[in-house]
């Protein structure tokens, strides 16, 4: 077993990256019984907070930055559920760039440190999801270099579409400059309003821009229950919860279909 590693990204903030990272990890672990590691590479630690709250964990006493400083990420892995583990982040991680520059003298070592430290963990998991800040930064560079695939989140608005374009352009830059071996898994639409005209037109434009096969048929619609989970943690108590879960179950099923196609293409290349 060698984990498929997926970074969830867009260079526009507030588009739903963290929620998709958490929920894809959660559905894989609880519904499909896959072994999953969620890596929080955002100093705000929102993914860590949501996962801990959902699992009834009151305190996070170890973080990814400690793992980077000790050269051992296994030591900061937190078990959340039977199949889900978390490497949490905290505000102290804002000093990541200073740490990298003091530790390494060349660019390649700086941007491949996460890849190096994740390698010993890959045999323990089916999937590793990485949540990153919406910035061109050492966080994004490390996540891209460590990942096999990127899932690009597209909130249905113009700035998010531009952020997705910039993300793909930057992926190409990383491939050209540093031989990053990463594939675009697809573009996942997150709608501001179900049935909204602007939302629909943005998805149509994304399809024209990226190609029909590259835009997910599944979409995450605007659901108030998702906001409620930020306060209560992830629940499955009523039909509103189940409706929200189903949206992400559909996404996970489509991720599986896309991964199977990538693997088939790889076999015949």
UniProtKB/TrEMBL annotation:
Name this protein carries in UniProt: Cobyrinic acid a,c-diamide synthase
InterPro entries to which the protein is assigned, alphabetical: AAA_dom, DNA_Partitioning_ATPase, P-loop_NTPase
Pfam families linked to this entry: AAA_31
SUPFAM superfamilies xrefs: P-loop containing nucleoside triphosphate hydrolases
Keyword Transferase attributed: no
Organism: Planococcus lenghuensis
Keywords, ordered alphabetically: Plasmid
Domain AAA: 4-183
